[in-house]
């Protein structure tokens, strides 16, 4: 099976199981993860972008954009599949999406979810660190 990335438009039972596992390190309350997931699917200003391999959702991030920038948040890859290129693939696909919209930058705002490891990963992917965000010029 091959790795794919796509935007989520509707929920499936397997997607909900996988999203719960994916975001459990950030939010331990499974009910809260499910509530936020359903809210996200109803919010037209945000898009859930996931990586899938062997019928399992193993990575994800949330995208929003304005006229100039694509903003990424909640970047996560299942711990059992880290160090295998999933995060890199997700970021590359998000950058391609930004380019297809003719956006100037891809931005990851600094937040509590941006760990030291994620910061190093973004820098390795070509992002530059600014005061309040990591930016990639398209």
Q: How would you describe this protein?
A:
This protein has one domain: Gcn5-related N-acetyltransferase (GNAT) (Aminopeptidase). By secondary structure, the chain is an alpha+beta fold. The chain has helices spanning 13-23, 30-42, 86-100, 116-124, and strands at residues 4-7, 47-53, 56-65, 69-77, 105-109, 128-129, 133-137. It contains four helices and seven strands; from the N terminus they run βααβββαβαββ. Helices cover 35% and strands 30% of the residues. It has a seven-stranded mixed beta sheet, with helices on both faces. Helix 1 (13-23) crosses helix 2 (30-42). A hairpin with a 3-residue loop joins strand 6 and strand 7 (133-137).
Could you provide a short overview of the structure?
The chain has 138 residues and is of the alpha+beta class.
